[in-house]
Amino acid sequence: MNTEQNLKKAEWLLTSWNKETTHPEPNRLDFLISAVDLRRAVTTLHDAQWGYLSAITGLDLGVESGQLEVLYHFCNGPAITSLKVHLPRTGDASLPTIEDIIPSATFFERELSETVGVQITGAKSMDRLFIPDDWPEGVYPMRADFKIEQAAPVEGRYVDEIPEEGIVRGNTFVVPIGPQHPALKEPGHFEFTVDGEVVTAARMRLGYAHRGIEKAAESRNWIQNLYLFERVCGICSHVHTMAYALGVEKLAQVEVPMRAQAIRQIVAGLERIHSHLLWLGVAAHEAGFDTLFMYSWRDRETVMNLLEQITGNRVNYSANVLGGVKCDIGLEQVKVIKQGLDFLEVRIRHYLEVVTTDAMFLNRTRGVGTISYAEAERFGLLGPTARASGLVRDIRVEAPYGSYTRFPISAVTATNGDLEARCEVRLSELLVTCFAIRTLMDNLPEGPLTVKMPRKIPVGETISRVEAPRGELFYYIKSAGGEYPARIHVRTPSLCNWVSVLEKAVGRQLADVPMLIAGMDPCFSCNDRVVTVKHFSGQKTWSWKQLREYGIEYYKR
Amino acid sequence: MNILPSLISVLIFPAGLTLIFSGMFYEWIDRKLVARFQNRVGPRWFQPFADMVKLFAKEQITPRLANPFLFFGLPVLAMAGALTSALYVPLMGLQPAHSFPGDLIVTIYLLSLLTMCIGLAGWNTSGRFSLVGATRALTQMFAYEAPFLLALLGPALAAGSWQISEVNRYAQTHWIVITQPVGFIVALIGLMGKLELPPFDSPEAETEIVAGALTEYSGRGLAIFKIGKSIELIVGITLVSAFYLGGLNGILPFLLKTIVVLVLMTMLQTLLTRLRIDQTVGLWWRFGTILVLTQIMLIIFLRSYPL
Q1: What is the spatial distance between Cα A360 and Cα B108, in angstroms, rounded to a whole number?
Q2: How much is the ipTM here?
């Protein structure tokens, strides 16, 4: 079925509740429905297996309009259906939960209620997931009339968790993992209730690395935002700028030159190699196989050097600019990259052999955290985690963008769905990526690197999806026609994959938990981009001016 | 004036200071080799010593819920156990400082004192990670203790004596590793379990339970535990190489044979992935114990009915 037919089918499915259809993009239909019909509409789409819930975006349409808008984005290949619900800004802004229909929605809903202030009724848990414990009640950072002064920390929301008499109640007690813990390379907090060695309950809390990037984006112009979104993630910085740039270029109706598209893809490919090798090291370390950890990180240096060779940077590459790329790849560099790939391919093949044959490592991965195809679909998993269960969730294949339209690639899948399969998928995928990079370099089109971009982006909204190393990266970009974006919403792949950890940890041994967390390749800083104001002393909120002065003073020394 | 030689033998040579420093030296060889195998640079030769100096200079924090007497006493007891066990083994290839029939059993149980103390220390500090770590340490002890003891009994049975010096003398004329290879492997791996080295480091698996039973320890307490461990390393290696690798009858054979055992251990550490605690217990009881029991049966049988 092609995109056109898919959208027709969605329209037909939703006829009974649809009040107004809009067509913001060629591959997307918006259906206005009322809040009371939401659950039925979602159930219909879900039962008809029309795609998967990709994100929930909340927007404040402004004080004058007095309305909030909530968009439930369902993706089916390149076709996107958005269920649009309008809610009043003041008074009863509430929506029924859909987490019982689609489990992964729980994180989207919690984000929605914390940032935009839509109350979710009927949800199992509405504990704070992202915003800090001392954030005042009833203050929502993504509202249009939010002022930084409102966010002054409140006292008394902290609960001291350790009672005087000790921590063991009966046979069970809670093992906290994080925010600071050797298993986690980034801050997150998990509470695993254990009975002896067996996990009986799991809970999580995010938001320790909040930087308020989505809010910050509203006060920066289109070009500044490119560099802001590069900082969402330190591992996959390039795909974030790529998703953003592709979206803005789509809005501005600018066609990026072929050569720039190819170079973007090459950098993205190298970044995927870097990310997966990093992941392999972390996973091996969690399993207690430090030798593999050391070796894979040694080899990661090769690909980091290649990226430095192309872009001049090792972490935030800044390869993209709006309308093209900043750096060219010359003949000399093609040679160097090919040499690097020769080495990497040999190593990747070796690691693939290690993770599939080393008996001791297999002890810790084979049959651990198995997710079946049906479960993967129900949890709404993305990226390699889903592909390890045989579920093809790969934007490069489902909805090709950029150079993937010229040089299609095949999705790598496995069937077992356990940790071994996830190792296998990630490493086999790298071999495909190496091949794709070679193909692109052999067929590098001639031409300019950039085209001119307008300063002001025309009114409109767009959804930009690219495949990050961890899965589908989702950007919702809305322009009001000015130099500044009206709203940018980011949904990173890690957020969708959390459900798998929490569900699969229960009943397993404590020793498997770090492996399970690592198995989905979590990226906390990606998750935690939403909105907060960090306070340093715990007592006062710093204004922008104060922060600036602090920074200047700090670096004078 | 025959108290002086005893004092020297306890405090300076071969036990006491010499033992502590050689323990640190062996720990350095272990760390350096593992690092080189893993493509890292590894520590400089004085690093274990520098670690100890640093730890001794640091503040020791006593957890609120811990019994302070036990908290300070357990590391001392653990190190005392390890130091005492050194008196009965042929360190540096010399005759053991003390010897009596049946000292093999005493030595093995003195060596276990360290693990017991670590378990108790974890229970005493009642931190969450310490509790899990202590449970694992003690569970693991029940797993490897029996096969390790049986593996050392093999040579003792062959020598016809449960006195370490006697077995050592017997071993100088018989390379037991050739006649009892299974026992050697079990003893070697059992020693790694005793020392909580990878792959048997689940009691202190940092990615799950931070530092296990010793999570709450800092400063002197931690330093003393660490010293106890490095002494146990050298005593354990001495015991295994004396029993299986043709005995120890001089400083040169001692260095050569113990370092061979250490290198074997570092190789295993590098190559193997950490086992979960249930896998550790399963491995020892399903394979280790049964293999070594079979071998002991054979020895007893052959000694009663020589071919």
Answers
A1: 29
A2: 0.82
Closest residue to B37, CB basis, from A181, A284, A291:
A291
What is the reported pLDDT for A348? 92
A interface residues, B as partner, C-beta within 8 Å: 166-168, 173-176, 181-183, 194, 196-197, 284-291, 294-295, 298, 358, 360-361, 363-364, 509-514
* 3-state helix vs strand vs coil in chain B, percent to 5: 75, 0, 25
pLDDT greater than 80 at residue B279: yes
CA distance A48 to A261: 36
Sheet holding A460-468, edge to edge: A460-468, A471-479, A485-491
Residue B133 to chain A, least CA–CA distance (Å): 10
- Percent above pLDDT 90 for chain A: 8
The 10 Å CB-count burial string (b at 16+, else e) for A208-238 is bbbbbbbbbbeebebeebbebbbbbbebbbb
For strands A189-195 and A198-205, give the pairing.
antiparallel
Separation of alpha carbons A181 and A175, rounded Å: 11
Residue A57 burial (C-beta neighbours within 10 Å; 0-12, 13-18, 19+): buried
pLDDT per residue as tens digits for the range B72-94: 888 989 888 888 888 888 887 77
Q: Which residues of chain B neighbour A294 with C-beta distances below 8 Å?
A: 38-40
For A209-228, give the secondary structure using H, E and C.
Answer: CCCCHHHHHHCCCHHHHHHH
* Pairwise CB contact (< 8 Å): A182 & B132: no
Q: How many CB atoms lie within 10 A of CB A153?
A: 17
**Interatomic CA distance for residues A27 and A16, integer angstroms:** 22
Q: If you search the block for the tokens 């509470």, which residue do you land on? A: A191
Look at A510 and B207 and tell me if their CB atoms are within 8 Å.
no
Q: Do the Cβ atoms of B223 and B56 come closer than 8 Å?
A: yes
Q: In the beta sheet, which residues pair with residue A325?
A: A320
Radius of gyration from C-alpha coordinates of chain A? 23
Check if the beta carbon of residue B165 is closer than 8 Å to that of residue B96: yes
pLDDT digits (tens, 9 = 90+) for A292-311: 889 999 999 899 889 988 88
pTM, to two decimals: 0.84
- Work out the pLDDT band at B32, boundaries 50, 70, 90: very high
- Other residues' Cβ atoms within 10 Å of the Cβ of residue A297: 18
Query: pLDDT value at position A524?
Result: 66
pLDDT at A208: 73
Handedness of CA B24, B166, B96, B107 (dihedral sign): positive
pLDDT of residue A540: 46
- CB distance B117 to B77 below 8 Å: yes
Give the lowest-confidence range in A264-268, A478-482, B163-167, B201-205: B201-205
